[in-house]
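Go through this chain.

——
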Amino acid sequence: MSTPRRRVAAYVIRHRTAPELLVFDHVGTPDAGTQIPAGGIRACEDPHTAVLREVTEETGLDRCTVIGAVGIDHRPHPITGQLRHTHVLHLRASDDSHDSWIHTVRGTDTDAGLQFACRFVSLPLPGPLADEQDLFLGHLDPDWTTLTRR
């Protein structure tokens, strides 16, 4: 049995007139679906460090605060079937963050160089995220600022 891949995923929320979630689409690859920042945890990282790195690499946002852990998704990768444990964390973005932008992914991971069309969308979401990444959004309070205890 193989060791599950350790990952993080970020619910980055900002509050203006209403709470909004940071999402992105792959430029030129619409079949990838709308997603949230996510990626692998390196050997020397804890989930909080990894999620901040992934958000910065994939979106360019570098002024986020980790609010707390939301849950752990133990589902295998939908295409490869690879076992994975994804730590889902709730982050707060600055209210003065841009509404939308194009970002070229930084870092050394396989997505380096890809372009992501990032944007904040109002909550609740109008539709599902790719790979059921919205699975744990219901674990946040209705005001989208704190975690519920389930």
User: Anything to note?
Assistant: The radius of gyration is 15 Å. The longest strand covers residues 5-15. The chain has one domain: 5-139. Residues 5-139 form a domain with the Nucleoside Triphosphate Pyrophosphohydrolase fold (CATH 3.90.79.10).
